[in-house]
Fold:
Amino acid sequence: MKRGSSATSQKSVQDARKELRKFLKTLDTVPTGILQEESRRLYAEIIAETPYRTGKLERSVRVAVSKNKRAPGINASASARSLKGYNYAGIQHENLSFAHPVKGKAYYIKDPFDRCIERIREKMRSRLTLGGGHGD
Structure:
């Protein structure tokens, strides 16, 4: 009587293990790629919603993908000072009663960021599914 081979040495199990390895390798590249894509779009959306009078606040907008593996994500900020040294970016962001005759609105970072998070979630769901996607 032939002894046979273990279940783990069977082609079907080996193929499943290969599929898992292939999927796990995408975890190194897919999130970074998505964050890079979305950081560019986020920047454009923030600029479109940033209040404008002199352009100083708009020029202060920064968006960057975090390089820290322990704290992945996107950082977005704005910081603009008046001639007297007062940083008015925060009050412009939060005050709903300000009028912006040229362009812009309150929550000029938060609202685009919320939309960005939703797009990232959707892209991650579609690209990180076992048996499909793999960053396609």
In short: The chain has a mean pLDDT of 88.
